[in-house]
Task: inverse folding
């Protein structure tokens, strides 16, 4: 069985005999599912079964979670015998094996993000770790650290029927500073007990290193997605958590946004990626990563140039945090 994805003009074919596994990936990337494509940039083949025996090789890198080997055009990643990835760079084929259904899905999910992210930057598009939404002619990005409450904030924002989702966790930015949608799934530590999101179907996403999360596909609320987010009025917000007190949204100079942009966009802290998937561990990697850093920097500067910048000090009242952002959006619409 095959699943074809077109992620902003990068074509990935995912094939697997396990229908349930393919369905999970389809739910994750529903926005990008397309009919069969004549040209495939990367083929990812998933096998629920034992890992094949590897050739005799010397490890080129040993990380905490895996060991990496290379022979010819093929790169082998061994996850302590519990899973294995074989990436043939020449054939543009990634084969992933595991008897653990959840482990196989997790590696496939991260592999798609890694390959997609790497090739996006070749075309001048990069990712930013933020939640993004739009109301009328205003688009807002709120940068928060991992576990900072992006999905929780979005759940309260969705109580307003005018809010449209651009991305729950990873909007895209091009070299013009324009924001592109990336609606995939919403992830939370617990299933919401009230509001719009509580009415959706949730599934457990088991992760190897990190605690499990609950996820829901945005395909269930397509009418709440912003497929063409407004570009003329953009609010770029860096969020910070307060231990107590009331939330404050305050304008700042563009210079003060360089630090948050460095963290959430240029270095990409918190973005889903498997670095070992696309590094060959040779001197060329230094130049590739430097080039990616330059592209991200240009995208960040262009985004900053066309945005109004704010610091958002978020108090413990989650509903009030959403209210502050909504009021700022409505205020911008009258300007």
Result:
């Amino acid at each position: 069985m095959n699943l074809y994805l077109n992620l902003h003009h990068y074509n990935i074919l995912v094939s697997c005999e396990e229908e349930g596994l393919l369905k999970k990936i389809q739910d994750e990337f529903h926005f990008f599912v397309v009919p069969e494509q004549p040209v495939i940039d990367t083929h990812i083949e998933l096998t629920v079964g034992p890992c094949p025996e590897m050739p005799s090789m010397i490890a080129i890198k040993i990380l905490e979670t895996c060991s990496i080997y290379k022979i010819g055009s093929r790169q082998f990643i061994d996850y302590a015998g519990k899973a294995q990835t074989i990436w043939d760079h020449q054939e543009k084929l990634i084969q992933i094996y595991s008897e653990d259904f959840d482990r196989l899905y997790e590696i496939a999910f991260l592999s798609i993000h890694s390959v997609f992210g790497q090739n996006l930057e070749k075309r001048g598009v990069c990712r930013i770790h933020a939640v993004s939404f739009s109301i009328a002619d205003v688009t807002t990005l709120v940068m928060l650290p991992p576990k900072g409450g992006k999905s929780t904030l979005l759940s309260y924002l969705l109580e307003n029927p005018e809010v449209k989702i651009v991305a729950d966790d990873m909007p895209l930015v091009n070299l013009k500073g324009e924001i592109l949608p990336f609606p995939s799934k919403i992830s939370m530590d617990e299933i919401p007990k009230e509001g719009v999101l509580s009415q959706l179907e949730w599934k457990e996403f088991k992760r190897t290193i990190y605690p499990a999360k609950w996820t829901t596909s945005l395909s269930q609320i397509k009418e709440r997605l912003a497929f063409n987010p407004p570009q003329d009025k953009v609010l770029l917000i860096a969020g910070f958590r307060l231990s107590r007190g009331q939330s404050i949204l305050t304008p700042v100079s563009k210079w003060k946004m360089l630090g948050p942009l460095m963290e959430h966009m240029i270095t990409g802290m918190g973005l889903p990626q498997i670095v070992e998937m696309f590094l060959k561990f040779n001197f060329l990697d230094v130049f590739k990563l430097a080039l990616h850093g330059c592209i991200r920097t240009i995208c960040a500067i262009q985004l900053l140039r066309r945005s109004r910048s704010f610091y958002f000090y978020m108090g413990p009242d989650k509903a009030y945090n959403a209210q502050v952002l909504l009021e700022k959006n409505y205020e911008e619409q009258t300007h």
About this structure: The first helix runs from residue 19 to 28. The longest strand covers residues 233-241. The chain has two domains: 2-123, 127-333.
